[in-house]
Amino acid sequence: MPTLDWIGKKAVVNHHRDVPYRLIHCDKDKSVGDPDAGNLLVQGDNLEALKALLPYYAGKVKCIYIDPPYNTGNEGWVYNDNVSSPEIKAWLGSVVGKEAEDLSRHDKWLCMMYPRLRLLKEFLTEDGIIFISIDDNELHTLIALCEEIFNGRNWVGTIIWKNATDNNPTNISIEHEYIVCFAKEKSKIAKEWKSGASPVRERIQETATKLIEEHKDRLDMLEAAYAAWFRENKPHLWPFQEYDQIDFGGVFTGSRSVHNPGKEGYFYDIPHPATLRPCKMPLMGYRFPEETYLALKARDKIIYGKDENKIIEIKIYIDEYKSKLPSIYELDGRRGANELRAIFPDAKRTFNNPKPVELISELVSFVTGSGDIILDAFAGSGTTGHAVLEQNMKDAAQRNFVLVEMDAAIASDITAKRLQKAVSGYSKASRNGGVTHISGLGGGFRFCTLGEPLFDADGNVGPTVTYPDLAAHVFFCETGSPIPRRADGSSPLIGTFQGRAIYLLHSAEAIGVASANAGNVLTASVLDSLPLPEPGIDGARVVYAEGCTVPDDRLSRLGVTFKQIPYQIEGL
C-alpha cells in the first residue's frame, strides 16, 4: 500500500507518547444540570485532554465525530504542539496561512492531525466508528492518514454532504463537503446500519396527525388536504418524496417489491376489487405465496390500481420506515448558523461554520444506542453534544458525550452556554414576530479543565495528585483498560484484569520518603496484609509502590511482581 510522507512526520509519529498525563478538574460553577448525567465538556488543548481522558475512556467510545480545521488557508488556526524537532519548533505559535505564503501548510496540518488521530483510535470500542468532516483541501491526505492509522481495510465509506448551492461564475461549483468514515475493526461492526430517526419524517407525521384529527370522518377530504400540503412542501421532504398518500392509519407509499427477482416466483390470480378481473402479474411471478398476499390484504396493506392493468403494491406506512445512511446527504449548511443565532440572538457573531444538529444527530442515530459514548475532540460550538441530547430525547435512549474545546473563551461563552440552553430550554424569535419557547432536552454535563501533570519535571508524582488520580493512571498503564471503579484509597487493591490483581501503595505525605514506615513502600508486613482478590484470580499480583524491602525470591514464590513508582509506570 502506498505510504504518506511529509515534513515533520518522523517527529510526530510517537509524539502522543511524549504528551504528559494531566489531572482533570471539574468546575462546579460552570457545570450544568445533573452532574451525574455522564457528560463532559473539557476545556484545554485537545491532544493533552485526550491523553488525560484516556485512562477513563480507553476502549469505551462507540462513536467519534470530529470537525477539524479544513486547512483552507483562511481559518487562522495555529500550530502549537511542543514537538522536539527543529523544523517543527519554527512553526510554534504561527498562524497557518495560505499556501502561497506558507509552503508547509499541509505538512503542519498532517503534523497536527497525526497524534490526535493516533490517540482517538485508542478510545474506540472494537466495533467503534469515527466520522471526520473535511473538504477538498485535505480529503485525500486525510484518507491516506486514516489508512495508515486505522488500516485501509477498515475504511467504511465517504459521505458527500451537499450543503450549498453556488451560483457564482466558476469552472466547477463546489456545493459539498465530505464525511470520512473508518471503523476500529470493520469486521466487528453491524452488517447493516438502519435508523428510524428523521426530522423530516417527524414533520410529516405531525402534519398527518393534525389532518386526521381535522378530517376524521371524511377520507376524501383527508386525502385532498394532505395532497395539497404534500405538493407545496415536496421539495423539502427528501427522502420521503414518495410518501404522497394518506388514510386514517397515517401517511404511506406503495412498495413495488412484489416482483420475484431473478427466477420464477409464485403465480396466482389477484382479483381487482372493482373490476373483479385478475390484476396484471409480474413477469417472473410474485415473490411471496398466496397465503402471504391474503394476510396482507386482511391488514389492508395492498394498494390496487384504478383497474386490473396495474401490478399491485404493498402499503408501507411512514412509521415503518427505516432509513439507510446514504453516501450523498442533502442538508442546507446554513442551518447550523441559524440554530446558533436562535440560541444567541443578541450575539453579533458566535462561531464560524457550525454544523447543523440534524447532521450529527443523523450519524449518531445510525451507529449508537443507549449506553454508548460519543466523543468530539474539536467541539467548537457544541453541536455534537446538542445532537446527542436531542437524539436521546427522540428515541428515549441514554447516550453520553465527551467534548473537548481548546479555546477557553469559546468553551465558556459558546459551547457551555449552548449546552446549558439545550439542557434547560430557551426562547427564540418566531417568524410572526412573537416568541417561541424551545423545551429543554434534560440531562446535564460537567465542565472540566486540565490541571498539572501527574508527574513533575523530575519524574516524581506531583504533590497535588490524589490517590484516585494515580490509581486510575496506574491501572490503565498496567492493563490498557480504564479502572473498573473509582479507587478511594480505602484498599490498596485497585482492580483485577485478565487473571491478575493490581495494587497501589501511595501516600501523598510520603512521596519521595524511602522508609519502611512510609505508606508508599512494600514491606513484608504490608505484603502479608494485602487483601486477596475475588475468586478466579490465579494468584498473580502486581504491586506499585515507591520502594520495596521484600526479597525478590519471596516475591517470586508468592507470584508478586513489584513495580517502582514512577519509573516502571509505562503508558501509551
Descriptive report:
The chain has helices at residues 9-12, 15-18, 46-57, 86-89, 105-123, 139-151, 199-214, 219-233, 290-298, 334-343, 357-367, 383-395, 408-424, 467-479, 524-529, 552-557; strands at residues 22-33, 40-43, 61-66, 78-79, 94-95, 124-134, 155-162, 176-183, 245-247, 250-255, 302-303, 313-317, 328-330, 373-376, 400-405, 425-429, 435-439, 444-453, 493-497, 500-504, 521-522, 540-545, 547-548, 560-564. With 572 residues, it is of the alpha/beta class. A ten-stranded mixed beta sheet has the order 1-18-2-15-14-3-6-8-7-13. Helix 3 (46-57) packs parallel to helix 5 (105-123), helix 5 (105-123) runs parallel beside helix 6 (139-151) and helix 12 (383-395) runs parallel beside helix 13.
What summary fits the major beta sheet? 10 strands, mixed
The number of E-state strands comes to 24
Helix vs. strand class: alpha/beta
Report the total helices.
Answer: 16
* Shape by Cα distribution: globular
% residues in beta strands: 15-25%
Average of per-residue pLDDT values:
88
As laid out across the biggest beta sheet, the strand order is 1-18-2-15-14-3-6-8-7-13
Q: Residue ranges: pLDDT <50 for 5 or more in a row? A: 512-516
Distance between the termini: 26 Å
Helix content: 25-40%
Report the C-alpha radius of gyration, rounded: 30 Å
Features:
single chain; 572 residues; alpha/beta; 16 helices; 22% strand; globular
Topology at a glance:
Blueprint: H1 9-12, H2 15-18, E1 22-33, E2 40-43, H3 46-57, E3 61-66, E4 78-79, H4 86-89, E5 94-95, H5 105-123, E6 124-134, H6 139-151, E7 155-162, E8 176-183, H7 199-214, H8 219-233, E9 245-247, E10 250-255, H9 290-298, E11 302-303, E12 313-317, E13 328-330, H10 334-343, H11 357-367, E14 373-376, H12 383-395, E15 400-405, H13 408-424, E16 425-429, E17 435-439, E18 444-453, H14 467-479, E19 493-497, E20 500-504, E21 521-522, H15 524-529, E22 540-545, E23 547-548, H16 552-557, E24 560-564
Parallel strand pairs: 2-15, 2-18, 3-6, 3-14, 7-13, 14-15, 20-22, 21-23, 22-24
Antiparallel strand pairs: 1-18, 4-5, 6-8, 7-8, 9-10, 10-12, 11-12, 16-17, 19-20
Helix pairs in contact: 3-5, 5-6, 11-12, 12-13
